[in-house]
Amino acid sequence: MRLLVTGGAGFIGANFVQQTVLERSDVTVTVLDALTYAGNKASLDSVADRIDFVHGDIADLDLVDELVSGVDAVVHFAAESHNDNSLSEPWPFVQTNIVGTYSLLQAVRRHDVRYHHISTDEVYGDLDVDDPAFTEATPYNPSSPYSATKASSDLLVRAWTRSFGVRATLSNCSNNYGPYQHVEKFIPRQITNLIDGVRPRLYGAGHQIRDWIHVDDHNRAVWTILENGQIGRTYLIGADGELDNKSVVRMLLEAFGRDPDDFDHVTDRPGHDQRYAIDASLLRTELGWTPRYGDFRAGLDATIAWYRDNESWWRPDKAGTERAYAQAGERTLGTE
Ligand code: NAD
Ligand code: TDX
């Protein structure tokens, strides 16, 4: 199989490409990535001589058409992915997440190429503590410019499938953790703060709940859907990993041998979603997928070890990321 992977220099895409090259010798991989602030070619160093890398924009219709004409399938990870950035400057989210997806859909339509669309549970909005988890039937109700543009892209995929017969599947996954995640995101930000001796920074009271899944489990689910999923169908991906943010920060502090209350409460995110939770029954029962990383604490320890061992990968982004948070108005509200 000849595969085009968009966003393959980003967090989930790079892990997907590495896993694919290591485990599937029958697949050839071309990566298309614009190398925005979130893309890092070094994330593909271990497989660089076994893939083709194209530096370019998914919204470039001619480039995308040419690349898609030479493959059997596209897995579309590329996106602007950070909620906080979408609150500061929404336009790149509209351009990449909506216009970029349009560009890929037109190309897979023209060349009749199989397409898998990577999306997020955030398209469903948020849940109260007692609500049942999201299912494939939950109505869309996005909160942030990021999740609204991801929801828009999902709807384009559904329309191109129904109206033009595009052979597409979609997956909406919960929060990923693991190696190669940008230091702007919650878990890597706190790990790298702790390595630097800086206190973790919890938005508001820290009662928001996220449903954590290891990135390798997400990517195995993507392969399962690509190979066996029903065309036109949406699959939710999650590993029953619900935890509130404060508990995650306390676990990280304990892993560093620090007092679990040694963190700061900082300015909350406007419109902050309260809770995400995934019911992945369809994926488990119809396609037989099960996660391999059952123990979040063990996965977290391995992730901490990766950031300790790979400081040269994240260090160049750290100071600028913290400066951007300060410039966006993040203030310490108090300590525990
Ligand atoms: P990321 O921000 O780490 O990586 C995004 C990648 O896309 C980068 O390499 C970037 O250079 C590239 N990119 C951005 N704009 C581009 C453009 N116009 N053309 C080509 N490449 C471009 O994101 P991630 O966390 O790896 O997320 C990947 C996908 O998974 C996204 O679609 C995201 O919505 C989805 N997702 C993420 C999570 C999560 O927890 N991180 C959970 C569910 C779904
Ligand atoms: O410093 C922080 N302190 C903090 O308390 C940061 C960066 C975040 N948080 C909170 C906000 C969220 O409740 O932690 C939680 C996780 O934050 P993010 O890492 O920004 O993730 P989230 O907003 O939940 O979105 C993520 O999961 C869904 C990804 O970034 C999205 O791309 C994906 O679609």
Describe it.
The chain has helices spanning 11-23, 61-68, 83-88, 91-111, 145-164, 186-195, 215-228, 245-255, 281-287, 296-309, 311-327; strands at 2-6, 28-33, 52-55, 73-76, 114-120, 168-173, 176-177, 201-203, 209-211, 213-214, 234-237, 242-244, 264-266, 332-335. The protein starts with a strand and ends with a strand. It has a domain at 2-176 and 213-237: Rossmann fold. Helix 1 (11-23) crosses helix 7 (215-228) and helix 2 packs parallel to helix 4 (91-111). It has 11 helices and 14 strands. The model has no long low-confidence stretch (mean pLDDT 98). By secondary structure, it is α/β, with parallel strands linked by helices. The longest helix is centred in the first third of the chain and has 21 residues, at 91-111. The strands form 4 sheets. A 7-stranded parallel beta sheet has the order 3-2-1-4-5-6-11, with helices on both faces. It has a 3-stranded mixed beta sheet with strand order 8-13-14, covered by helices on one side. The chain has a two-stranded parallel sheet with strand order 7-10. Helix content is 42%, strand content 17%. The protein binds nicotinamide-adenine-dinucleotide (NAD) and thymidine-5'-diphospho-beta-D-xylose. Residues 6-7, 9-13, 32-36, 38-39, 57-59, 77-81, 96, 100, 118, 120, 150, 173, 175-176, 182 line the site of nicotinamide-adenine-dinucleotide.
Which terms would index this structure?
336 residues; alpha/beta; Rossmann fold; 3-stranded mixed sheet; 11 helices; 14 strands; 42% helix; binds nicotinamide-adenine-dinucleotide
